[in-house]
Amino acid sequence: QVQLMESGGGSVQSGGSLRLSCAASGSASSRVCMAWFRQAPGKEREEIARIDNYDWTTYADSVKGRFTISQDNAKNTVYLQMNSLKPEDTAMYYCAAKFSYIGSCSLLTNFDYWGQGTQVTVSS
Which pLDDT value is given to residue 15? Predict the structure, then answer.
């Protein structure tokens, strides 16, 4: 059974940094597309970063230049380094994964597995 477990959330002041981790277990597939999403109260869920098994990455404009997605295949873990945090980054952050995907990670429109989320709060 595939499980995703996020960690690393917390409270930080504006301008600070956090690194989120998402550890995947239960899948032997090396072809995986993973993404980070966030959802603030009263707002729609937003995808902010995506990475494929070739380390191709893409970012939402709202985080481009401040956030970096990366992965450690040996640890089956994806990271989200968040720098220059702003109060508007406050949200619940979720990782998502699709294993053994067909085609391009960049074209995927849904993910099969989701973590439970980790809260990030940025104060001004």
Answer: 98
Q: What is the structure's pLDDT at 14? A: 98
SS3 20: strand
**Run of H or E including 120:** strand 118-123
Token pair for 18: 């956090």
Question: How far is the C-alpha of 7 from the C-alpha of 82, rounded, in Å?
Answer: 13
d(CA 24, CA 4): 5
| SS3 at position 91 | strand
Structure tokens at 67: 């956030």
* Alpha carbons 35 and 57: distance in angstroms, whole number: 9
Edge to edge, the sheet with strand 67-72 lists 3-7, 18-25, 77-82, 67-72
Angle at CA of residue 47, ends 53 and 42, nearest 5°: 155
Q: What is the mean pLDDT of the chain?
A: 95
